[in-house]
Structure formats: C-alpha cells, structure tokens
C-alpha cells in the first residue's frame, strides 16, 4: 500500500461547496482505501495497492481523480498529488522559522513545475520585511507577515488566473496535520 495526498484547489470557496463526507465517498468509490479527509479545504489522504512506477502513472491517477470530481460535483476539478514520503521531506525542508508567531508559513505545490520557478523569480521584487519565497524541490516555500496576508505582493502574483489550474497553497500547520 502506498499513501497519497490529494490537494484540491478551489473548493468550499466561490460557490463550490463539497462536504468532506461526499469527497471521501468519491475517493472510496474509485477503489482507494484508508480514505480520510483533513479540514474542509480539500485535503484527502488515501491508499493505493502499489506504488506508481513513473510520472505517466501519476498523471493518469491525477486525471482519473479530477474526472471523478468534475463528474460528481459539476466543477472543473484541479488537484495536486503527492505521496506521503515526499510530503514529509517537503515539510522537513521548510527553510524559514515556522514557529515565528507574526508570520504565516506556507508551501505552494504545483502540477506544473515551471510555474513554481516563474513565481520564485519574483522573490527579488518582494519586501523581505513582509514576505519571502524560496524554491524547494518541487515546491515553493513562502512566508508572509500575518498583518499583510493575502494583500501581499506575492499573493497577488500567485493568485493570477494563469496559476489557478496548476497550483495550490497549504499552511505548513495543515501539512503537519496531514502527516500525523
């Protein structure tokens, strides 16, 4: 058995409401086991029988889940898939002080790595007194002052339509919960 985490983008906002029970039922209906949802923001942990052999198998799994979500909930579903071991490495590699009380620690995931590199290119434009980004292995780490939050320069850049179908951001604390 291999554990995967599906990070859904854009649910329970902008009129797309999905209960976690219905979400879990969808994954169970696809034949996955040990299905568990975490928080109401679209985090699903599940197991598959065997590890995926390559990127093509991961892409097929992603497409299958997105198609099932789109069919069941009538919205254009976008997800990022990550296996449990990789998520653990990503969390342990967080480059900033995750316990800094005045800051939010985030990790941005993408199904299109080029988008993360592109977004990381904006690092030099940011006011380090308010926020910082650093490219990691397959992710982009971001921390922002709580007082600035979604009004930050990076938040505005990363929120562009161009990135909606490929990126999703999670608070580091949520990622710790997913690993527990």
Automatic annotation (TrEMBL):
Q: Which SUPFAM superfamilies match?
A: SP0830-like
Specify the domain of life of the species encoding this protein: Bacteria
Quote the PANTHER family the UniProt record gives.
BLL4334 PROTEIN (PTHR36439), DUF1697 DOMAIN-CONTAINING PROTEIN (PTHR36439:SF1)
Under which name does UniProt file this protein? DUF1697 domain-containing protein
What is the scientific name of the source organism?
Answer: Cryobacterium frigoriphilum
């Amino acid at each position: 058995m291999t554990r995967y985490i599906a990070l859904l983008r854009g649910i329970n906002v902008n009129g797309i409401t999905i209960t976690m029970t219905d979400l879990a039922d969808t994954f169970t209906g696809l034949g996955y086991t040990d299905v568990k949802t975490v928080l109401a923001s679209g985090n699903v942990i599940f197991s598959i029988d065997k590890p995926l052999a390559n990127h093509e198998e991961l892409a097929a799994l992603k497409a299958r889940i997105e198609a099932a979500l789109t069919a069941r909930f009538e919205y254009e579903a976008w997800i990022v898939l990550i296996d449990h071991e990789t998520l653990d490495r990503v969390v342990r590699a967080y480059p900033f002080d995750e316990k800094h009380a005045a800051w939010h620690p985030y990790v941005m995931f993408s199904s299109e790595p080029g988008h993360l590199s592109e977004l990381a290119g904006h690092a030099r434009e940011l006011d380090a007194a308010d926020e910082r980004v650093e490219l990691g292995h397959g992710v982009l780490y971001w921390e922002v002052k709580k007082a600035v939050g979604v009004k930050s320069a990076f938040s505005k850049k990363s929120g562009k339509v161009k990135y909606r179908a490929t990126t999703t951001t999670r608070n580091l604390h949520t990622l710790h919960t997913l690993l527990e």
